[in-house]
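Quick one:
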Amino acid sequence: MLLTPLYAAAGRQPVLHHAVHLHYLAAGYLFAWSLAGPDPAPRRPGLAVRVGALLGAAAGHAVLAKYLYAQAGTLPPGLGNPDPEAFRAAAQLMYYGGDLAELLLAIALFATWYHHHPHRRSPLTRRFAQSS
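Output:
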């Protein structure tokens, strides 16, 4: 979306602007739920697939943020008055904020997996969990 004229159009049309933000919110929520949401989820893939999806999304997110930073003077297409410094700042926020969000999602994913697999815990951990 950030590499298309849709971004510039969303800046001019409030309804489209809010629709784009709703799209981002819904996509992020569904992605997080599919990876680390409450179980049982119907036909949820295994841990390896979910970790792979998280790593793939993190890599894609980082590459997009770096590309946006590097091309801030020419992006987004169709924008009448581009501000490269503001776009670079937004790309940096996307890069580092995305890393933080992905780290938190990874913690939630592994915490959910660990909580649902008590047989994989060590005897000391099991004893501690039973006493609390």
